[in-house]
Specification:
Number of helices: 8
Strand content: 5-15%
Strand order of the largest sheet: 2-1-3-5-7
Order of helices and strands: HEHEEEHEHEEHHHH
Structural class: alpha/beta
Helix content: 40-55%
Shape: extended
Number of strands: 7
Largest sheet: 5 strands, parallel
């Protein structure tokens, strides 16, 4: 008979693994991504003239610590196999032709990523005698990844944005305007100078984003057919319950009155 006493670990102290459950939105986003992009993408890096700091961060991104390949992002030694061209460093005179050859050697559709502060703007070398500026001075850039240098997390985020743009380019449709087709002008019966003044005043009071909706409502009142313009604007102000919008509409009406009274339309 054993004298050893058996002790049982309490249930509250035992390790139990909780299964990770994904949110429905995350599941839908993953399904959409896998449906749009059926394969991995290959990137090709072109150093146009930098300090090699960006290259160190790119190499850190593809190492096992951050492991960019888990997202299907692979490095390729040839631009002929590349889907994404990553340009680092400022655009120098000596690298102009190699940069162009790499761009022309990559098959369409292709994306151009401007990487780092020097790649985006020329960085500290922007006013050098042999520097034109950033990558966009020579090539059409789709994604900018700023930083000096960008961190691996920023790099993966920029590549994820590039993947979304690549999916759009693979499924894009081009619509060409016909010879007799003309896009209709919005609120074409409102004089251009008046519209500029109204939009400028609205932006001053409500900012760019919010003023757009207010200007659309005000322009709709000005464009109403069969109704006096000032009566339509007065009705817009009278039917508005938000005092902030009433103030903005009143200021826009003052702009209208000053333009009409001054005969500057």
């Amino acid at each position: 008979m054993s004298l050893r006493k058996t002790y049982q670990v309490p249930e509250s102290l035992q390790a139990r693994l909780d299964k990770v459950e994904l949110d429905e939105k995350i599941v839908a986003a993953k399904a959409a991504l896998l449906n749009d992009i059926k394969r991995s993408v290959y990137i090709y890096r072109v150093d146009c003239g930098g300090c090699n700091g960006c290259e160190i961060e790119i190499f850190a991104t593809i190492t096992p610590v951050f492991d960019a390949e888990r997202f299907g992002i692979k490095n390729t030694p040839s631009p002929r196999h590349a889907d994404i061209l990553v340009y680092t460093g400022a655009m120098t005179r000596s690298m102009r032709m190699p940069a162009l050859r790499a761009y022309e050697g990559a098959p369409d559709p292709k994306l151009v990523v401007s990487y780092g502060a020097c790649g985006c703007t020329g960085g500290i070398f922007h006013d050098n005698y042999c520097v034109w500026g950033g990558t966009d001075q020579l090539l059409p850039v789709d994604v900018y990844i700023p930083g000096c240098p960008p961190s691996p997390a920023q790099t993966i985020y920029g590549f994820a944005i590039a993947l979304g743009l690549l999916g759009q380019k693979l499924h894009e449709t081009n619509i060409v305007e016909g010879a007799d087709e003309h896009a209709p002008l919005l609120y074409e019966n409102v004089p251009y100078r008046l519209r500029v003044e109204i939009e400028r005043e609205a932006r001053r009071m409500a900012g760019y984003r919010y003023s757009e909706k207010l200007v659309d409502r005000f322009m709709g009142a000005l464009s109403a057919e069969g109704v006096d313009v000032f009566s339509s604007v007065d009705a817009l102000i009278a039917n508005e319950s938000d005092p902030r919008k009433v103030e903005i509409f009143s200021e826009l009406k003052d702009v209208l009155v000053s333009k009409v009274a001054g005969g500057r339309l």
